[in-house]
Amino acid sequence: MAVISELLRSEEDGTISFGDYTLSTKAKLDNFEHQGDLYKVKTCQEITKLERNGMFVYESVPGTAVEHLKATDTGMEFSVEGAEDAQVTVELEDEAEYDIVIDGADAGRMKTNLGGKLSLSVELGDAPVKVSVQKC
User: How many CA atoms lie within 13 A of 109 on its CB side?
Assistant: First the structure.
């Protein structure tokens, strides 16, 4: 399993990767510049959290490693891995409906709450799991 040893990094394809679920104590990286935005990550075995410009983007319990996170106006895509199944919460548009695809399987539609948060469970194993959340 791959962790992001530098906690947060820019990828050549314009996406970001972050998180290290193997850490027994919390580690954080603040003021990481990527495409004009400032990112902050906190990560450890218990939780991984990402903020962009001071606003919530992603959180998992327990901690995870996320690769190639791409957030657009219409949704979000990323690959996630961890030591055990995780509850993932992402920030999207308020009160909007999204199609969820986890590891190539249709997981149905979900609506974000008033604050734009959407939570989903991801079964993790030996390989990264691809997650796609796209606005209907």
Answer: 7
